Amino acid sequence: MTQEFSKQLDENKIPVLEEFYSVQGEGFNTGKAAYFIRIGGCDLGCRWCDSKETWKPEIHQFVLISEIIDRVKQTSADTIVVTGGEPLIYNFDKFCELAHQKGLVLMLETCGAHDFSGMWDWICLSPKKQKPPKSEYYQLANELKVIIYDEDDFLWAEDCANKISNNCVLYLQPEWSRFDKIGKKVVEYVKSNTKWNISVQVHKFLKIP
User: Fold this and answer.
1) What domain range is 10 assigned to?
2) Quick one: pLDDT at residue 94?
3) How many domains does the chain have?
4) Is the pLDDT confidence value at 202 over 90?
5) CA separation for the pair 111, 89 (Å, rounded)
6) pLDDT at site 90
7) CATH number assigned to the domain comprising residue 61
8) pTM, whole model, 2 decimals?
9) Phi and psi for 160 in degrees, rounded to 5?
10) How many helices (H) and strands (E) does the chain have?
């Protein structure tokens, strides 16, 4: 299956679960209008994942990169957010080349566990304990966003924060399904550890994609 994906990527295609124009709902760029491309395929299996449909890459349609960019240009969007799943299971060099030729700003959300590819204007690293990032991602990241599911995740967050560059912005994000239980703990943690900021999934409160 991986070889087949690589072949189709050579043909300027990427596997897409969904694409839509909306507003960034979390992290540093909260509130910014952007065109979202959710990539099919992920090998992490996070227990709290809200996009489990991405786990089976074989069900997703490969779409021509040029056609995706044409659809972006039909909207008012000047920014693309590539998310998943895990986008960098695949090579994004060609995608970034073509999108930048059209003057689009490119933002990536990744766990950092796979080989880096593409040229990105903003990289949000959201590391996962079960498959930690490769070392290079800690220096590439503009934003570190750690999901807090339980209190052990604070230790994981600090371990990651010790590896990032001085220019990286730090976020803790309460896991949505446990927001009522873990949210207040995140607030108290940030009050005691002021290098961190809180990311909240605003799009879920606003009930937008």
Assistant:
1) 2-206
2) 92
3) 1
4) no
5) 10
6) 87
7) 3.20.20.70
8) 0.88
9) -70, -40
10) 7, 9
